[in-house]
Design a protein that fits this description.
This protein is an alpha+beta fold. Helix content is 32%, strand content 14%. It has seven helices and eleven strands. The longest helix has 20 residues. About 2% of the residues have low confidence.
Amino acid sequence: MFVSRRPQRDLVTRMDPAYWHPAYDRVLRQCSLPLRPLGEFITHITYGAIVTGRRPQHVDGGLPLIGQGAMRISGVDLRDLIAVDPESPWAIERARVRRGDLLIARSGAGSLERNRLAVYHCDTPAVVDCFVDIVRLEGIDPDYVAAFLRTRFGWAQIHRLLNGVGPANLSFDEIRSLQVPPCELLEQRMRDRHAAEVLPLHQRRRYAEAADAVRQIVRALTHALESPPSPEGWRPRPRHVVSS
């Protein structure tokens, strides 16, 4: 039981009572760095092609079609994926991934509700299917964002937005609204740790060990964000302007 007093203009934007639970705001207030909307850093956001009435056919030498099942905690697993013809309807230009893209499960109790997301660290040309969002970032490190969204500060925001009726999903506007704490020092630390501790294991397909390494990074980031900024300068990044 809780009581939330808000202006009516706010309440009508979200009619599900659980969204207004004060615990969500309490969690964010415990983050020691200033938060800014992820949308300030997004240059491209989309999902894969919706093709009705037929299934994709495998073509040797085609483009791997990335679905939610290929998204591991440590990165994207391209093994055993259907590869589609580059001229097929599934291989539309907007859905082609680039190295450094953040991929987020669009919906589903088994994926989005389990915070399934990954950063694409391959140079292999590939496309996402219609159940995966591509979030392309500029001015903030994608591995840092992925780690942050796995902390209690990030997950509380996602969980809050998932409350309501119907299938669990995040709209583009809701993804843009997620608050992140840009910080050059922490971004560099998380990026270095990911490159040294996670990628080598992921590339050798030692996925369980790679997942454990990611969890250790997330715990370290959570601890850092719960602590006051250090004297050496956990300064927030200057405000970034996304290039048009």
